[in-house]
């Protein structure tokens, strides 16, 4: 029976300890500034991205790994007799999924299974952890891929951003929306729905009010949560993340609540001081 290795990309923002413990392969996306292109989490840190954006007043572009990047990552596993399940960033947000499919086509049929997570960040991480546990139990790559495809609709992902500036600079809200939002201190609550980022609430006032609203929505679903793992993700929002972690520990029966740091690509789109909740139901 073949060993199954689980892969994802850098937008899963998996903690290093998880990657090491479960031997999870990561294919990085790219952060592209005018003076250079950098591998997410390998050649540049989120703090460096925010510093450059503040200094330059312009966002970097982000780019998917090429098919050649995926082939180079997958080849050693396939050559060693293993099979692969790769869980990608939502195909609605990036060409990462399509490039992974192209790469998979260069290997014998059935050796590389590519799954569209239809989510990002901690939402992908939840699916990856389900996959690595299934692999440890000896399930086949085909069975694991099918399980992930069935599970992805159960992932809930919500975010609160601290500023509309990054969404505006990235073309995700108009200049007038940014101007009015800044004046009124409107904090959007964003949710992943069918693989796309959708604003589900606009909370006026302090960011804490928006975070509390996101928490209330999660707690309303507490009885239906998958109790194995819940993820709090953030970009330099330690206090908000700690508040959510404490409240969720006290008010849910989830076995593990992990706090993770979102990486460069996620941060390039939502900005610093963003905080999110990801769980399965």
Automatic annotation (TrEMBL):
Superkingdom, natural source: Bacteria
Database matches in InterPro entries: DegV (IPR003797), DegV_C (IPR043168), DegV_domain_contain (IPR050270)
UniProt KW Transcription regulation keyword: no
Protein keywords: Lipid-binding
UniProt key word ATP-binding: no
Designated name of the protein: DegV family protein
Species the sequence originates in: Paenibacillus tritici
């Amino acid at each position: 029976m073949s060993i199954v290795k689980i892969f994802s990309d850098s937008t899963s923002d998996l903690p290093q300890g998880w990657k090491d413990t479960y031997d999870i392969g990561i294919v990085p996306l790219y952060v592209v500034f005018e003076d250079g292109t950098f591998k997410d989490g390998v050649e540049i840190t989120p703090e460096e991205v925010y510093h450059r954006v503040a200094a330059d007043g312009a966002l970097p572009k982000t780019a998917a790994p090429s098919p050649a990047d995926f082939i180079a990552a997958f080849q050693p596993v396939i050559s060693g007799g293993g099979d692969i399940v790769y869980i990608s960033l939502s195909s609605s947000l990036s060409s990462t999924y399509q490039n992974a499919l192209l790469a998979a086509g260069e290997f014998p049929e059935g050796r590389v299974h590519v799954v569209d997570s239809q989510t990002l960040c901690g939402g992908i991480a939840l699916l990856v952890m389900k996959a690595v546990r299934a692999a440890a139990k000896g399930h086949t790559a085909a069975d694991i891929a099918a399980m992930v495809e069935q599970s992805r609709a159960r992932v809930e992902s919500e975010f609160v951003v601290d500023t509309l500036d990054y969404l505006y600079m990235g073309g995700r809200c108009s200049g007038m929306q940014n101007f009015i939002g800044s004046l009124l201190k409107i904090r959007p609550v964003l949710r992943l729905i069918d693989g796309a980022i959708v604003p589900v609430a606009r909370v006026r006032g302090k960011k804490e009010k928006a975070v509390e609203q996101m928490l209330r929505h999660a707690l309303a679903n507490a009885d239906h949560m998958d109790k194995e793992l819940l993820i709090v993700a953030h970009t330099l929002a330690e206090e908000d993340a700690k508040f959510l972690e404490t409240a969720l520990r006290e008010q849910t029966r989830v076995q593990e609540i992990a706090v993770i740091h979102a990486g460069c690509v996620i941060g390039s789109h939502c900005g610093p001081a963003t905080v999110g909740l990801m769980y399965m139901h």
